[in-house]
Recover the amino acids of this structure.
């Protein structure tokens, strides 16, 4: 699977004694507590999130009305740059404050193994920041008169909802060949995204919007917050297909597909399968594959699958004269099997990684067909639902007990000492993709087979020379000389060879010569 | 800390314990002991029931 991909996660932040209006300031303080080497600032001048891949630019992006109310009463404490607190790390990742959420963007990866390690490294990095913020990394315990730890608690959650109607994102990014028409991406990906929550959903107790009225337990944290099929907005009027046009690479050759419809996965396996299957569907579309299925009502189908208590997960599909598929109801598992079948026919045997995705895709669909709870070692919503059911049985309470939302939240607490996901992992109940050593290494080392290697190396060796950074370019100074390191074409078969030459650089100027 | 270029560990993605090489069928029961989740239940009982009530966030992308 030769594709660049990466994950961005906006982490939930709880700081004891602070209100929601304080979170922009608090998130900045957490990010600024990053304890290791970093460089900056980020150069925003070449970014334009209002450009739409369908060939136009919107006048403004939608904001969230509830955020607007918070901002009307929250004092502005610092400049934009101070607030965002951008940090580019020696592993090639980006860490910053995005609207009150510490956000960690993995470096660009080209294989699922690296991606999972770097996604998990992000959890540890943000947790390390939070601990540094309250002094836990460097100071002895301080206790009050009652013996209670007097330091404020900071909790970091890798989830997508506050259970009060506010959602925040976990975005996937895939580099896609420019010649694939965006309309074809919409057509081919919409049914896939609507249905992949059956194995990629993180699970949620209850519902928060009218779309999830009556929901007891949903497959997805995010599904109910999506209200339109295609669009450039992300904070409100969220679309199943985000049409943001920011390639962060040579725009003549590439587009970046920015996927906002997914959940944050605690499960290493779910992360790998989510990204691996999506990448295969993109490869089909790059080959000119013609999608066979069109959903009649994609947004409603997304909501329905998430909250369907019958777990039949049926959606309405349009008739297709070419394939002979009539208008009918189709089960989400069977719809995913169509994508699997097409992917297997096209790519089986291409690489170990592709075969892993094909094998596990089938395995998880078979499991969902036969007994979803058999997947509790790898699918997040199953693990969460089963764990909560065990708690209900133990305590003799019902699914409408309010404590369940607190337990739901704690499933996503990234602190291994208290988080429920990590309790499962410590009990040996999770299927691992990477080791703890892999994750620790990813906290400081970039992938060696993508352009992120040059970025990370530059931060590790030449950070004092760096003037600004973006995903595709670094500006530095070597004495009086301005140095531009252009990464927009450092993509493809020659990257590892370029990286080997980069590793021999004696000065930052040597990196500008890389071609 | 030094950034190194090195031959990245290229090991195959791990297949679950219930699956054997060449077996592409559906999942069976894992051939491992059932995980002990009793300690996890104790961890759950220590969760403050008001955590979710207090937890308020701004929206994100």
């Amino acid at each position: 699977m030769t594709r660049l991909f990466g994950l961005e996660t906006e982490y939930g932040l709880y700081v004891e004694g602070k209100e929601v209006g304080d979170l922009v300031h608090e998130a900045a303080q957490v990010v600024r507590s990053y304890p290791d080497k970093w460089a900056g600032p980020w150069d925003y001048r070449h970014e334009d999130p209002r450009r739409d891949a369908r060939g136009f630019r919107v006048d403004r992006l939608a904001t969230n009305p509830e955020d607007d109310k918070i901002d009307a009463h929250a004092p502005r404490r610092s400049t934009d740059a101070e607030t965002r607190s951008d940090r580019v790390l020696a592993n090639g990742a980006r860490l910053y404050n995005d609207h009150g959420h510490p956000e960690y963007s993995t470096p660009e990866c080209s294989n699922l193994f690296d991606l999972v390690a770097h996604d998990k490294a992000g959890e540890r990095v943000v947790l390390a920041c939070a601990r540094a913020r309250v002094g836990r990394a460097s100071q002895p315990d301080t206790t009050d008169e009652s013996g209670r730890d007097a330091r404020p608690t900071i909790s970091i959650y890798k989830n997508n909802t506050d259970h009060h109607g506010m959602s925040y994102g976990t975005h996937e990014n895939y580099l896609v060949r420019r010649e694939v028409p965006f309309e074809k991406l919409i057509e081919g990906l919409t049914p896939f995204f609507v249905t992949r929550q059956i194995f990629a959903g993180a699970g949620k107790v209850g519902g928060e919007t009218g779309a999830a009225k009556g929901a007891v337990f949903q497959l997805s944290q995010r599904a109910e917050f999506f209200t339109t099929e295609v669009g450039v907005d992300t904070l409100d009027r969220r679309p199943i297909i985000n049409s943001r046009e920011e390639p962060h690479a040579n725009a003549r050759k590439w587009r970046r597909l920015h996927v906002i419809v997914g959940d944050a996965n605690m499960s290493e396996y779910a992360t790998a399968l989510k990204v691996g299957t999506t990448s295969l569907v993109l490869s089909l579309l790059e080959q000119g594959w013609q999608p066979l299925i069109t959903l009649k009502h994609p947004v409603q189908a997304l909501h329905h699958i998430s909250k369907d208590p019958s777990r039949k997960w049926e959606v309405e599909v349009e008739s297709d004269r070419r394939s002979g598929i009539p208008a009918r109801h189709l089960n989400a598992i069977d719809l995913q099997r169509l994508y699997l079948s097409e992917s297997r026919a096209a790519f089986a045997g291409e690489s170990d990684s592709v075969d892993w995705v094909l094998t596990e895709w089938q395995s998880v669909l078979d499991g969902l067909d036969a007994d979803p709870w058999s997947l509790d070692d790898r699918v997040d919503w199953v693990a969460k639902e089963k764990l909560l059911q065990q708690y209900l049985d133990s305590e003799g309470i019902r699914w409408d007990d309010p404590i369940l939302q607190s337990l739901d939240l704690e499933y996503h607490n990234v602190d291994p000492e208290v988080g429920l996901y990590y309790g499962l992992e410590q009990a040996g109940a999770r299927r691992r993709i990477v080791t703890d050593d892999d994750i620790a290494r990813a906290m400081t080392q970039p992938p060696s087979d993508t352009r992120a290697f040059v970025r990370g190396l530059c931060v590790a060796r030449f950070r004092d020379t760096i003037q600004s950074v973006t995903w595709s370019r670094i500006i530095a100074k070597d004495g009086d000389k301005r140095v531009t390191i252009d990464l927009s074409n450092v993509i493809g078969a020659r990257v590892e060879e370029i990286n080997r030459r980069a590793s021999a650089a004696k000065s930052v100027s040597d990196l500008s010569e890389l071609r | 800390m030094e950034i190194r270029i090195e031959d990245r560990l290229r090991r195959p993605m791990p297949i679950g314990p219930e699956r054997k090489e060449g077996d592409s069928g559906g999942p069976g029961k894992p051939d491992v002991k059932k995980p002990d989740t009793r300690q996890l239940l104790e961890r759950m009982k220590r969760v403050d029931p008001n955590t979710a009530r207090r937890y308020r966030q701004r929206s994100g992308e």
The first strand of chain A starts at residue 5 and ends at 10. The CA atoms of residues 364 and 370 of chain A lie 10 Å apart. The first helix of chain A runs from residue 23 to 32.
